[in-house]
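User: I'll paste a sequence; please echo it back and then give the predicted structure.

Assistant: Echoing your sequence first, then the prediction.
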Amino acid sequence: MPKLLLIIALLCVTTSGYSQTNITETPKEGYEYFLDFFKSVDSSVHDAAIAHIDNNWSESFEILSIETLYFLRNAKLGFKLLLILQQNTGKEFGYDFNSWFEYQWKKPPTYNPSYFNFKAALHKSIDFRFVNYFLNREQQATIRLDEVRWGGVEQDGIPPLRNPKMIAPSEADYLEDDNIVFGISINGEARAYPKRILAWHEMFTDTVGDTPVAGVYCTLCGTVILYKTQYGDTSYHFGTSGFLYRSNKLMYDKKTQSLWNTLWGTPVIGPLVNKGIQLEYLNVVTTTWGAWKKLHPETTVLSTNTGHQRNYGEGVAYKEYFADDELMFNVPAIDSRLKNKQEILAIRLPLETDESIAISSKFLRKNRIYTGRFHRKSFTVFTDKSGAHRVYYTQDKTFVFYDKGNIAKDADGVVWNLFEDRMENEITKEVLAVFPAHNAFWFGFKAAFPQTTLIK
């Protein structure tokens, strides 16, 4: 999330933000003493809170102390709390919050159920809607709450594009052929979403090919995933929550304010958890504008007329973040087999198995035709001149030639045409279905799927 917004929002955590917080006066719970640092300017109240925390220390106070220190602007008070935290943990991380969080994540959760209410009250002054994510939801979570971190913006503070304006390629004079786009094709309707625009918005909701969808771009973990927003008889309307889990943005649905993991396509905190909900995800191709429009001359593409004032220049958004391998928000573990932000192709079948495969894009660029097996299914990845990957269920077929465009040939000499939703035998018109896939940064995908198999 943008550092400037993070700084501005941190400064908003003031006494006035807690004037309306509904906190029971008697009996007082342990977490409420930490909130006293924000809701009162009375030093005697602060001293009493410090004394209570020190005299009644428990392991459950660790995460409360860490998150309090993260937001606390009172240096003198913060130093007192930091000393108590360090003395009781034996750790001297100072204000290195990444180290404190990693210390927490290396052991089983230490917080108690009241941590959910603490989290709600702590973030209320930033955005009152944040209360809905956590308050009284201690029985409605499938992920560790201490791994849920505020990303620096309010709810929809990074504004999603809803029913965005699309234009013809001839009108898109702002794009160069080498600009990166995320291409989708649903029921014959092709669309391109330039990275230079989507990086400022990180989500779009629309109807494409008569299918309601949400496209989620987590800039921090390098993923663009397209979901069908209809599940059973329910249509979900999503937005950006403002929170992260393992450096991956969490979205929320408007009706229940449940938080959803955007890599898993499932609700993880709120009344929708454990309901068996698993959104179906569709194929997204990361390619160049020149390559996409050559294959899809009928495509439409995002207009810069989004209703928002942004610098949509190529490479402007998150320029510093993309320029190196450093993380903005840390994760529990780093796998050094690849660099953090090295790109991988994610192979998953979430409706069938929890298993996954991550294939290095660098490896695939050296192996333009790659055949593998996953969950008893054969697949082939074709990587074109732009570096875009397309994956198909290829059954028992072996492919020996690929023109790095849209033509492939199998071992029997049969020519196949590659489309976004299928491969088609040029003679018999036999069809091989697409295997939905998406790109991601290695660190983010590995954090979401710790047991993934890496091919490099």
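The mean pLDDT is 93. Residues 75-89 form the longest helix (15 residues).
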